[in-house]
Amino acid sequence: QFLMANKLDTAMWISRLFTVYCSALFVLPLLGLHEAASFYQRALLANALTSALRLHQRLAHFQLSRAFLAQALLEDSCHYLLYSLIFVNSYPVTMSIFPVLLFSLLHAATYTKKVLDARSSNSLPLLRNLLEKLNANQQNILKFIACNEIFLMPATVFMLFSGQGSLLQPFIYYRFLTLRYSSRRNPYCRTLFTELRIVVEHLIMKPSCPVFVRRLCLSSISFISRLAPTVA
């Protein structure tokens, strides 16, 4: 009854569980490397479906207007719909599947707990314990996802020069990264950029750091800071 009363949430729960399943079979290619590539695409397509359903839930009344597009781009679900479209037809990159896998796992775990509560307050204690441990590490998982989002930017550039990526991919991914940096719901990308800057500045200001390395890092920090969008 609980599942039928929340059909859209249930559909997203099923698609997230399928995303976790496909992502796991890509990261751990138990069925062979050829099959792993197909699971990579399936995971991203399932994530795109989940993101589209979530976006529909957040903005139910679609309008073909600039205002609606601006509103949609503020939603994290729109960001990851774009993310899935960026990588779904690209060369499989293990780093790109971790955000999809971990976000799906966190959201699926939250809804699984609701399903268990609807069934009985004491049902499946072992599963409940695993869900509680996952929830306790949520902050660390979100930071790891943000780290993946950041380091995928140079990875897309490397893929371009190695012949495994398209010319447009780094530019589209840069747009995705600016959206994540400006996210209202998830500040972890912004936080990680700040923390990485502090760590790098601390290291290069040590006397043992060569002058040319210090200058290179400072110019890189200045360049990246100019590319960062303004956050209200």
TrEMBL record:
Entry's Gene Ontology cellular component terms: endoplasmic reticulum; membrane
Bilayer topology term: Multi-pass membrane protein
Membrane is among the record's keywords: yes
Pfam families: TMEM33_Pom33
Calcium listed as a keyword: no
Annotated transmembrane regions: 12-33, 80-106, 150-174
Keywords noted in UniProt: Membrane, Transmembrane, Transmembrane helix
Protein name, UniProt field: TMM33 protein
Name of the gene encoding the protein in the UniProt record: Tmem33
GO-annotated biological processes: endoplasmic reticulum tubular network organization; membrane organization
Principal cellular location given in the protein's record: membrane
Highest rank taxon of the organism: Eukaryota
Family: Belongs to the PER33/POM33 family.
Taxonomic lineage from the root: Eukaryota, Metazoa, Chordata, Craniata, Vertebrata
Subcellular location(s) per record: Membrane
